[in-house]
Amino acid sequence: MSERLSVQSRPPKCETSKPFAAMVLSCIDPRIIDQVHYYIDVESKLRCNYSQFVIAGAAVGVVAPKFRNWHETFWENLSESIKLHGIEKVIAIDHRDCSAAKIAYPDVDFRNPAKEKEAHEKVMTAFREEVKKRHRGLTVVTLLMDLNGDVETLK
Q1: Global confidence as pTM
Q2: Percent of the chain that is helix, strand, coil (3-state, to 5)
């Protein structure tokens, strides 16, 4: 039998109107979903002021050749979010210990934190370049999140 959440335990209704500040690209990994929402809602103070696209690997899923069939879905969604929500920024959040990254880049030693970060930096560079090619005026923020929610900016 499932428990039903009380109205008091739910977040308050969003009263935000368009345009939204950003689109957030994040991973489907259930270990990171709450951490991403906390970071965006609370730490970045963007609650109710962003759209979100969730795909395995986040930016890895959008640029890795292994997942090329997924790429156009993201780019079409981003284009529509710009039109529908008036966003001017995309925030891409990859995370450590990402299974999609391990699948996409089997030659990388993801047990080594420095090598793992280097791989995500390459992904984010490709992601930023592709965004700039498609949406020149869009600001791009690229982040790497630990499973505990700590975030670092990737260049």
Answers
A1: 0.91
A2: 45, 15, 35
